[in-house]
Amino acid sequence: MYGSLPETHISVKAHVSMDVKIRSMRRNDWPVVRSIYLAGIATGQATFETRAPTRDTWNSTHLARPRLVAVYERNVAGWAALSPVSKRSVYAGVAEVSVYVSAESRGRGLGRLLLQRLIFESEKLGIWTLQASIFPENRASVSLHQACGFREVGARRRIGKMAGIWRDTVLFERRSEVAGTD
Fold first, then answer.
1. What domains sit in the chain, N to C, each tagged with a CATH number?
2. pLDDT tens digit string along 115-165?
3. CB 3.0–4.6 Å: which of 63, 116, 154, 178 could bond 82 by disulfide?
4. What angle do CA 31, 131, 137 make, to 5 degrees?
């Protein structure tokens, strides 16, 4: 259910100097992962979801690997995972990206570290395309994905209603130069 990969220690110079460890998500990380997800939901800018799923539901809708957490000052401060975009075998190498950082840790580069590691690990697993559907108002997420090599594919106008208001999303994708090149 939870894959294992070597821990990576990274020193980052962003707004503050910090030591971050990126590691595989562990079963006992779920309460914090869920809490960070709930905080993202509460912003109204991260997802159309209105509540966090149970751990079992979350597990069933995300790929088994990679599932990553960023540990900062001995606490899980962010997470990243992939969801399949389709059950059809032709799309086996295409996945949707989720990256969430705790409110108190935003703006420090953790999202970028998580997304970079997620890209690296996904390519090792043969995933050739990553996609992200982002609210255009979420400038931080748009910038993050662009900085990590995602390109804008197009806008989806009035794709869903949130609290009775139609919302747009922008679709981004990143095609691997390593996986799926044959």
1. 8-175 (3.40.630.30)
2. 999 999 999 999 999 999 999 999 999 999 999 999 999 999 999 999 999
3. 63
4. 75
